[in-house]
Amino acid sequence: MRMVAETVPEVDPQRPSGARVYDYYLGGTHNFAADRQAAAVALAAMPDLPAVLRMGRAFLRRAVATVAGAGLDQFLDLGAGIPAAGSVPEVARAVRPHSRIVSVDLDPVAVVHTRRAAAGDPGSVALLADLTDADAVLGAPGVRELLDFDRPVCLLAVAVAHFIPDTERLGRALERYREALAPGSYLVMSHACAEGDSPHAKQILRIYNHTTSPMVMRERDELRALFGDWTLLEPGVTAAADWRPTGEDPGVGRSARNEIIAGVAVKP
């Protein structure tokens, strides 16, 4: 892995982290007692939450496999989180063995574990950065050296945009990324959604607002707007479970199918 020089702040194990709570839901071990306590409260409010998150991970795997199958071998993963089974490098390299991946996260725990998992991998960079500062991400040491922006890149913002409450700031950042990428590039996004005024959503929002990662829900039209003028692949913006499903996808109750919405678009 190519290293990026920056100061990694100290981790506060007493305050729950969205990335570590997510890791716990997926069965990971990179979490603290405070994270597990926050997860337990959320699970009491919404017992099928882990199934919903696994559904979102399954969408990520299908989308990355689709993009890699279209010939792309460069991935810029915003809000990459803590490495888990079915990660972007794992799926992409199953199709394109020499794929290059830049992982970006604001959580130092996620960055540290990504670097450990990719130790000795020259095709990976892990960057501690705020994804909404697009120019800083695009110009960071190691990023320009690893990714060729004259060729198509797959930009991923999976299960992360709902942690950015400022829609205007998020929109400006995504617009800057879209401008920087070559025609033929892809944008993969998923987002927490509160369609139908779900009581679960309100409870989950309250819980996450006491972690390092406050959340906001957005509707399908709002997510669709974040793709700009790029061309959405069929079936467009839809429930993550309904985006090109396969027989191997995890099941989730009908009432929770719309908790995560998703889409994939290509730059004309």
State the name of the first-level CATH class: Alpha Beta
**Cα distance spanning the termini:** 32 Å
β content, as a range? Answer: 5-15%
Q: State the CATH superfamily name.
A: Vaccinia Virus protein VP39
Provide the helix percentage. 25-40%
Sum up the overall morphology in one term. globular
Helix-strand sequence: HHHEHEHEHHEHEHHEEE
CATH architecture: 3-Layer(aba) Sandwich
Total individual domains: 1
> In CATH terms, what is the fold-level topology?
Rossmann fold
Whole-number radius of gyration? 17 Å
Mean pLDDT, rounded to whole units? 86
Unreliable segments of 5+ consecutive residues: none
Total number of strands: 8
**Count of DSSP-assigned helices:** 10
Structural class comes to alpha/beta
Protein name: SAM-dependent methyltransferase
Enzyme class: transferase
GO molecular function, one term: methyltransferase activity
Keywords: Methyltransferase, Transferase
Task: Describe the fold and architecture.
- The protein has 268 residues and is of the alpha/beta class.
- It has a single domain (51-196, 219-266), classed as Rossmann fold, CATH 3.40.50.
- The protein has ten helices and eight strands.
- The protein has helices at residues 18-25, 33-45, 49-69, 88-95, 108-117, 134-138, 143-146, 167-180, 199-208, 220-225; strands at 74-78, 100-105, 124-128, 154-158, 186-192, 231-232, 238-239, 260-266.
- Strands 1, 2, 3, 4, 5, 6, 7 and 8 form an eight-stranded mixed sheet that branches.
- Strand 1, helix 4 (88-95) and strand 2 (100-105) form a beta-alpha-beta unit.
- Helix 1 (18-25) crosses helix 2 (33-45) and helix 3 (49-69) runs parallel beside helix 4.
- The relative contact order is 0.17.
- One of its GO terms (molecular function) is methyltransferase activity.
- This is SAM-dependent methyltransferase.
- Its EC number is 2.1.1.-.
